[in-house]
Structures are given as structure tokens and as C-alpha cells.
Amino acid sequence: MRRFILIAVPYLWLVALFLIPFVIVLKISLSDVALARPPYMPQLDFAAGWEGFKAFFAALDFENFWFLTTDDLYWKAYLSSLQIALTSTVITLLVGYPIAYAMARAAPEWRPTLLMLVILPFWTSFLIRVYAWMGILSNEGLLNQFLLWLGLINEPLTILNTNTAVYIGIVYTYLPFMILPIYSALERMDDSLLEAAEDLGCSRLSAFWLVTIPLSKNGIIAGCFLVFIPVIGEFVIPSLLGGSGTLMIGKVLWEEFFSNRDWPVASAVAVILLLILVIPIILFQRNEQKQREAEG
Amino acid sequence: MSQTVFAPWEDPNEKPLIQFKNVTKRFGDFVAIDNLTQDIFAKEFFALLGPSGCGKTTMMRMLAGFEAPTQGQIFIAGQDMAKIPPNKRAVNMMFQSYALFPHLSVWENIAFGLKREGKDKDAITARVEEMLRLTRLSKFAKRKPHQISGGQRQRVALARSLAKAPKLLLLDEPLGALDKKLRQDTQFELMDIQEKTGTTFVIVTHDQEEAMTVASRVAVMDEGQIIQVATPAQIYEAPNSVYVADFIGDVNIISGRAKPNGEKVATQWAEGQPDIIGTTATKFDAGQEIHFAIRPEKVAISTEEPQDAANKVQGKVLDIAYLGNISTYHVELPTGHVIKAQTANTRRLSRRQITWEDPVWISWTDTAGVLLER
């Protein structure tokens, strides 16, 4: 019995915090918008008993999902989100890998400090850090002032409220999620493997490609998913740093919900987003499992 | 037809494959190798033996090219190696940790070096198959390193380092991770492979038994210097110092003053005890401090006083170590010295004559021990 309770705790957790909310969202996505509180119908009428149930289910339909296909705003937003997520994942990898590599190569007594520095930004509110970027990137911001002072440019660059600012914000915010798994893969690597590769005729560079990269592959994959998955649904960064041209599904979702007060369509958008994310999440978990098996 | 003894180091016309010339290596203030000069010849199985921190691994890493000498030069086949990186040397190394690539199969591990040479596919396949046969690994070609045993991994590492047919193979504590029985078998395998391939092997080890078994010559090292280089038999029978005598095998050391007498030297070692008579080729001054070293198996032990022994002392059995095939007796002399004497157990235990606290005689001939200056 005690064992059963122990096993039940995480399941109850999942049911309460994942499954029930999801069912609610799914239900709303199948409802119709209404001028009411809450702003959708039908509502389940318990007092009517069985008849109430029947009426309730009869009123649910896939109309909202159909609506998503009629307006090209939605699929464009999905595609644009995927594209932004993909691009920023690649940039984050290109920036993060050298950092992780340098950390893993650093003297052992320095590593905890470096690790701390990577994690340190999490101690400040994410929102404040994004606002700080607004201050840096705006026309009168630090970056433009600095570049003007250097004489590299004659008039301020427009960075804020463009996709560039979104990329900067995303790469900055998600960099630790890329660095940490790659670092942990590289740190475990035996240095004598690189010596062996050199001994067998590799140059430093080819040893890197043939040994270091394959051995950090799992770290790279994990890091990419950890960046890619949350970035697709990212809302704060595109709405604060992006402009009117930045189209991301998170922003669309927010507008449907709060500006249009169309909860059913917003929920449909969310359900589709979840379905899109299920694929990379499954791939991510498969990678983790493969890694565990390889180590076991 | 008599077989010629392999001893290129005794032939003055022979050109050494490896030459260390006044090599010094410092790590900060620490002197790892101290002004070392040494020749190693082609087809030798050369062992670097010493305690950890004696500089033996540094010597090997300098040969592989992972460390550069602070001073002095290293020549391989007459070529100064100073500017040559590890990947351009005809030297391969078998790492202590084996350093097998975990993401590659046994086959790919062995092929790794060959592929870097840009050989064509058939040549690589043929060579890898040959190496797999040589190391009896054909069955495991497709496995990953974590799917095979420690002994098999060791053989993969050997096959990989031999695949490129290097002029020189370096082995860094190659058998350290294996258990004793497997280690002994592998030692003979190593010698076999060395003979078959005709490669020069330099092995680093702290295990004197291993060095003695496999090597054609053993260099005993201490604190960055080579103390003695000789064949295993010479090292054992004629060590040049107390350090070497003590490092290799078991030994009794008795210190005293020299009393030269023609070919023989008497050692005054304790008052009221007869001098130890030994034979030596070295000249000693009268009254000079010398150390008499004798191996326990050359000390005879008996209950009766031996009649015709050059050296004999009476003592009392302090301890007996029974090792199955042999027994070691620790005999305490009246002077407080403890001398180890070893006898083969040709009789059954129950019929053994000598036991604890027995008064016994220990004796040895005048050629059994060596006299050492330091």
C-alpha cells in the first residue's frame, strides 16, 4: 500500500498539473466564443443530469481548428516561430559550444566559478534582463552610443523592434541551456582520447572533428532541444524586443486571448502548438534514453 | 647452429634507433628528467622501470611528442624530434587508460590511424583484419569498447597502436588494469607480438616482475635519472647500487667497512662477528664504507653448523613466510640484523625441520653476494 502511494504521488502531480489543465484547454478549444463569463459556451450543466451531458457534448465541435486553416496569419505564425526557433538554436549552438569547450578545458579549480557565471543571470528576473536589453539596443541605447563614439557608424542603428533584437534576446536568454549539457559532455571526456587521436595521425583540428564533436553529440542534441522547444512558444522576448514584423505564435496566442478575448481560438492555437512540440519532445527523450543506455 | 644473442647495445657499430642526448625536462621547479643520455636500439624491448614520479612516463611522453624537452635533444632514427608534432612521428603509443574511442567499434578504432594516412579501403580492411587476427579479436570487431572485457580492450589498444606499423611502440603501464593471471598471459603475448612484428617496444612500468619478464633491457630510474641499464639477469645478479638491488626483488643489505685482500674483499660489519668474504671486480679502499647485498635464495639455512661455507652466522628464526613453493625465513642475528633466507619447499610441510625460535645457521659462498659502493 505504501509503495502504491509512493508511485501515485508523481502521477497525481502529472494529472493535477498537466492532464486536467490540458483537458480544460482542449474543451475550451472545442467550444464557441460567447459574451459571457467565462467567455465561451457551452457550460456543463450538472443540474440537468444526463440530458445536460448530452447537450454539452453535442455543442462541442472542431470549428476553431477549421478557422485556423482559413486565416493564413496562423500557419504563417507557426512557420515563422519554427524558423526563428531553428535559427536561434543554431546561433545559440555556435555561440555556446566554444564557451562550453573553453569551460571544460579550463583548469579544474576555475570550473566551478565559470559554471557559476553561466548560471548567475538566472538570479535576476528574466523580465528585468529583457528590459535591460531594450536599454542596450534602443536607438539612444548603450550599444548605439558606443558605436557612435567609436565612429564606426554615423547614425544610430535600428536594432530594437526588429527580428535581430529578438534573436539577440533569445540567444542571450537560452545560452545557459545550451552551454550546460555540452559542458557536462565535454567535461567527462578523457583527455587521453585527444592525445590518442593525435598519436594516430590526426591534426588538432581533425581530432576535434573526429573525437570531440562525436563525444559531445548527446550534449549538443540535448542543448538544441532545450533551446528549440521553449523558443517556439516564446512570448515575452518577441513582444518586448520584436517589432510589428515579428510574427511568433506565442504573440498571436496572447493577442487572441487578451485582445480579442477569443478563448476558444486561443486554446485551439495552444493545442496545435502542443502537438507541434510533441515531436521534438519525444525525440529529445529518446536521445536522453539512448545516452543513459550507452552509459549503463 | 647456435643462435646469436640479441645484444645490439654491445656492438659499437650498431646505430641506435632512439637517442636521448643530455635531456632535461622541468615542470616549473620540478625536475622530471635530469640530464639524461640513453640509447635504445631497433627491435629492443626496452623497459623503463621505477617508482611513480621517477620520470619514466615523462620520457615516454617526450618520445611520443606530447612533451618537449626543456634542454637537450631526442633523436629517432637519426632525426631530431624537437619540431615534429605527435601526428607526424612514426611512433605510436598504447595508453595506460587504453584511450579507446568510445563512439567507434573495435574495427573502427583499429582503422582510425590507417584512415588518417589516406590509404585505400582494401588496404585498410586487410590491415585491420590482420591486426584483429594477431590480437585474436576477430569475433569482437563490431562491438563497442564498453561491450568487451578489460583484457580485450587492452588488446584492441595494442592492435590500434600497432596497425600503422610504427618504428617505435610506446606502452604506458599496458597491463596495469589487468588481474595477475591475465597479466602474466598477456606479458608473453606481448613478447610474441613484439617478436613477430619486429617493432621496437618501449614499455613503462612500475612492476619489476613485468619489466623482467618482457624486456631485453631494463632501465631502473629514480628521480629523473637512469640508475642502471642492463639485461634483466644482470640487473638482478649484478645491481650497481643498493637502490637497484632493493628495487628489483628481495635483498639483504649489510653495511660495513672494506678490507681488500687480493680478489676477495672482506666486509667488517659487526664487532665479534667474522668478516663477510665476497668477490668483486671493483677496487675498494681499505676502510671504505661498502654494502654487501645478497638475495635471500642464495642464503642457505640449516640446523647443523655447515662445514665448508665461506660465510656462516648463527641466529634465531624470527618469522617464517610460507609461499607454497618456497618459504622465506627471517633470521635474527645476535647483532640485531635480520637476514632473509629462502628455501624451496621440496618436502611436505609436516616434515619441515625448522620452526619459530629455532637456533639456526645461515651460510653463503664467497661469490653469492655483490659488494656495492652506494
From TrEMBL, chain A:
Keyword Cell membrane: yes
GO cellular component term of the entry, any: plasma membrane
Membrane-crossing residue ranges in chain numbering: 12-30, 77-102, 114-134, 165-186, 207-232, 263-284
InterPro entries: MetI-like, MetI-like_sf
Origin: domain of life: Bacteria
Keywords for this protein: Cell membrane, Membrane, Transmembrane, Transmembrane helix, Transport
Domain ABC transmembrane type-1: 78-284
GO terms classed as biological process: transmembrane transport
Alphabetized Pfam families for the sequence: BPD_transp_1 (PF00528)
SUPFAM superfamilies: MetI-like
Subcellular localization, as worded in the UniProt entry: Cell membrane
Membrane topology label: Multi-pass membrane protein
UniProt similarity note: Belongs to the binding-protein-dependent transport system permease family. CysTW subfamily.
Name of the protein: ABC transporter permease subunit
Native species: Marivita cryptomonadis
Lineage: Bacteria, Pseudomonadati, Pseudomonadota, Alphaproteobacteria, Rhodobacterales
From TrEMBL, chain B:
Keywords on record: ATP-binding, Cell inner membrane, Cell membrane, Membrane, Nucleotide-binding, Translocase, Transport
Alphabetized SMART domains for the sequence: AAA
Cellular component annotations (GO), alphabetically ordered: ATP-binding cassette (ABC) transporter complex
Iron-sulfur recorded as keyword: no
Span of domain ABC transporter: 18-248
Annotated catalysed reactions: ATP + H2O + polyamine-[polyamine-binding protein]Side 1 = ADP + phosphate + polyamineSide 2 + [polyamine-binding protein]Side 1
A molecular function GO annotation: ATP hydrolysis activity
GO biological process: putrescine transport
E.C. no: 7.6.2.11
Domain of life: Bacteria
Record's subunit section: The complex is composed of two ATP-binding proteins (PotA), two transmembrane proteins (PotB and PotC) and a solute-binding protein (PotD).
Protein purpose: Part of the ABC transporter complex PotABCD involved in spermidine/putrescine import. Responsible for energy coupling to the transport system.
NCBIfam families linked: potA
Family: Belongs to the ABC transporter superfamily. Spermidine/putrescine importer (TC 3.A.1.11.1) family.
Name assigned to this protein: Spermidine/putrescine import ATP-binding protein PotA
Native species: Marivita cryptomonadis
